[in-house]
Structures are given as C-alpha cells and as structure tokens.
C-alpha cells in the first residue's frame, strides 16, 4: 500500500511540476513575443493554405490547362513566402525556446521540403507533378470489343471490366492499354520530379527526399519497424496468396494460372492489385453462405449518392460528432460531372476557413462506395475537429494518421450489425461460416493492400536514394511487387511505361 501511495504521489508531482514550470516561463517577454509572432504567421499561413486549396480544388474538379497553370502559380508564389518564413525562424532562437509549443511550431515551419528550391525549379517541379496528375486523370483507352471506341476512362469503365470480366485476354488488354497510355507519357515528368526533389534535399541538408519524408514519423527507427512489421505479416499473406492462386487455377486452368509463382496482376480485379475483393465470388471460402448483395438492396430502396452521404453524416452525428456544414453540400462534387474532366480519385478537402470542407469523388451507389464515403467523411470530421488549431497544426501528426482515422470508422460501418441497423441486410448475426467469409473479404482488401503499400514506399525510397538506376525504374518496381506481393504484369517484361 505504502509503495503504491508513493508512486501516486510521485506521479502527481511529476505531472504537476513541468506544467508549473512551463506556466512560469511562458510569461517571459521572449515567449510572449514568440507567441505573437507565431499567431500572426499562422494566420498568414492559413490564408495561403486557403488560396492553395481553392485553386487546387478548382483544378481537380475541372481539369483544364488554364486551371493547372493557375494552381501552380499560386503554389509557387506561396512557396516563396514559406521559404521566407523558414529563413526568419532559422535566424531567430525560436527553435531553442523554453516553450515546447513554440519549439514545435518553429521546427515544423522551418522544414521546407521542395519549397527550398529556387523559384524556377519550384515551378518546374509543380509543373511535372501536375502534368502527371492531368495525364492520369484524363487518360482513356480503347474498348476490347470495339477498338475504334477509345473513350474508356479508368473510373468507371475500366474498373467495371476489371471487376466483372472473367476473360483473361480482355483483362490483360485493359491492364496493358491503361499502363501504356498512362505510364509512358509520365516517364519524363517522373524523371524531372526525381531530379528536382534530389536538388531540394541537398539544399535542405537531407541525404535524400526519402529521409525528408520519413522524418515526419518522428521516429529514427521507423523504417526498421516498418520492415519488421511487414515480415511478421508475410506468413499470413502467403497463405492468403496461395489460397487465391489455387482458386484462380481452379477457375482459369493451369495455363492462365500455373500452380507456382506469381499471380498475373490483371486477374485480380484492380488495376494495381491493391485490393482483390472484386473477385469475391471466385474465392468465397463457403460459397453455400453467399454474401448478401448490398448493392441490390440499395437499388431496391432507391438509394442515391446524396443518400449515401446523408447516411454517413448521420452516422458521425450519432457518435456525437459534428454535422456536415451547409457549404459541404453546396460545394462538394459528389458525382462525375459530364461537362468537364475531373480527377476522379476520391479526396477530402479542408479549405482552412469557416468550416469549409468538401469531398470530390465520382461516387456510384454500391457497397464499395458506401465504404469510401465513410472513409472520406472520416477525413472531413477530422478537419472539423481540429479547425480551432493554428494552421501549422491543422494536419495529421504523421503521414499515416489521417488515413487511419477514416478507415477505423469505415471498418465498423461495414459490420453486419451496422448494415442491419440501417436496414440494408436482414440478419445482423453471422454464423461461423458466414463470419469466416466476412473476415476473408476484409483480408482481401486490408491485408492485400499491405504488400502493395509497402512495395510502393520501398520503391520510392529506393528511387529517391538513387539505389535504382534510371534504366531499372520500371523493372525495379515489378521486382518489388513480385518479391513482396507475389504478383506480376500479364506481359513481362513491361518495357514501355513506368
Ligand atoms: C472550367 O474551367 C474553365 C477555365 O479553364 C472555365 O472556362 C470553365 O467555365 C470551367 N467549367 C466549369 C464547369 O466550371
Ligand atoms: C464502335 O465505336 C465507334 C466509336 O465510338 C462507334 O461509332 C461504333 O458504332 C461502335 N461499333 C459498335 C459495333 O458498337
Ligand atoms: C447553398 O446554396 C443555396 C442555393 O444555391 C444558397 O441559398 C445558400 O446560401 C448556399 N449555402 C452556402 C452555405 O453556401
Ligand atoms: Zn483517405
């Protein structure tokens, strides 16, 4: 008992002391001056973010050359101002301030990244990045069944084929077409991107742009931990991979899917092989316990895209969180417009002003988008929750965190219990076999994503660190996808694109 009390007492003192000390010191003239400095600078920064995201959104929801130019000009102008601020902070003693909050703000605002480049180089970098975005957003391919119809976009046309076609030749066609047409024109821009980020790293005194990225995790051991975690997961992934390969061989025969080796990525229902659950009907462990088709039920009940977002909004409110503001409904782009080109890849936006938050996404009514809607609304809710913070803190504490917030929420939304609660399925209690089916389905998206995400990061780190010669950029990527994920392109070697 006695020891316990002493521990409690010590804890209380330890908790109290630093707080008391910091209170005392915070009143010093230099801390007050620093507070004032960062208050003003955060307000300027907030305005810059506001302007950047407005022009970025304008481009993303209306992909034209004029909008692209307008966006990169705003970025370039603001980069100069960010650079000036960083120089001012470095010339001051804010980074050594006795006040932890000031030290942290100073540290964050003096990390420059690409803004360290001179104005011309910075503009060239933004030009390379946005050119890749434009190309990705606007690329179309020719139809397998009608080669003179070359108007098929990734979302929704090609994805629809990858999800529903079971003809390996057709699947390989779309995979190759899309990679040739999206990858080949990017090569030069990607090389420019690598060259300029290397230059920025040198200016900042980082060994590489990978080191610049990794430091945001604030853990010098981050990469080793990442490797160790992946290694731990690998045996489980191998089992999943082996089972899926076996079921694919049953379906397609040994010529298309041999017993050993990699799975041709075009068979997996997703352009990057990052999620395999479009093919659930081929793999269901207990086919006699079929999944209830939520999409059919949605159609029967007259679901609209608007309704999906309203359901999401209600869900967050039921957790005691904030309702979506009226401007969200006015200013979001929730379906693919037919009068302009848009970047369809779903994204959630914070405009750093008056709770202005929006989603841009080419939503359709099915269970995949039901999930994505909740995921994106997770980002939105996070924006709303931290909007009182100074601009420098209005972001995730590390690059992984924002995605986790949305996914944690979205995962529970997909549970049978919740689907029953909103009237999409009748039975919210699963028996053992249905439960295994359900878990298997989760694994096909959540576990399968990990070797993909891991390979992409390892690849980018290797490119940034110059560990892969430029002539090896393409085949290096596929070596990693093969080594970590056991998948390969339908035709190999894939020379033309990236
Ligand atoms: C798209 O942007 C262009 C400017 O590049 C503008 O003229 C056009 O009105 C915009 N379209 C829509 C629908 O906003
Ligand atoms: C093939 O596509 C072209 C161009 O869109 C169209 O004019 C033609 O009617 C299509 N042919 C068939 C058989 O659908
Ligand atoms: C949303 O649009 C309506 C109709 O166009 C308008 O009356 C309202 O002021 C807008 N609200 C916001 C928050 O922008
Ligand atoms: Zn996300």
UniProtKB/TrEMBL annotation:
| Residue positions binding Zn(2+) 2 | 375, 379, 403
- Give the source species: Drosophila sechellia (Fruit fly)
Binding annotation for Zn(2+) 1: 375, 379, 403
Q: Please verify whether the record's keywords include Metal-binding.
A: yes
Give all cystine bridges in this chain: 142-150, 344-362
- Note the PROSITE patterns from the entry: PEPTIDASE_M2
| GO BP terms in the entry | heart morphogenesis; positive regulation of circadian sleep/wake cycle, sleep; proteolysis; regulation of heart rate
Q: Which UniProt keywords apply?
A: Carboxypeptidase, Disulfide bond, Glycoprotein, Hydrolase, Metal-binding, Metalloprotease, Protease, Signal, Zinc
Query: Which enzyme class, named as a word?
Result: hydrolase
Going by the UniProt annotation, this protein carries glycans at: 62, 146, 330
Q: How is the cofactor bound?
A: Binds 1 zinc ion per subunit.
- The highest taxon in the source lineage is Eukaryota
What's its EC?
A: 3.4.-.-
Q: Which GO terms describe its cellular component?
A: extracellular space; plasma membrane
Q: Which Pfam families match?
A: Peptidase_M2 (PF01401)
Q: By which gene is this protein encoded? A: Dsec\GM17055
Q: Which family does it belong to?
A: Belongs to the peptidase M2 family.
Q: What residue stretch is flagged as signal peptide?
A: 1-22
What name goes with this protein?
A: Angiotensin-converting enzyme
* Active site, per annotation: 376 (proton acceptor 2)
Task: List ligand-binding residues for chloride.
Answer: 217
Q: Name one GO molecular function term.
A: metallopeptidase activity
Alphabetized PANTHER family for the sequence = ANGIOTENSIN-CONVERTING ENZYME, ANGIOTENSIN-CONVERTING ENZYME-RELATED
Q: Which cofactor does this sequence's record say it needs? A: Zn(2+)
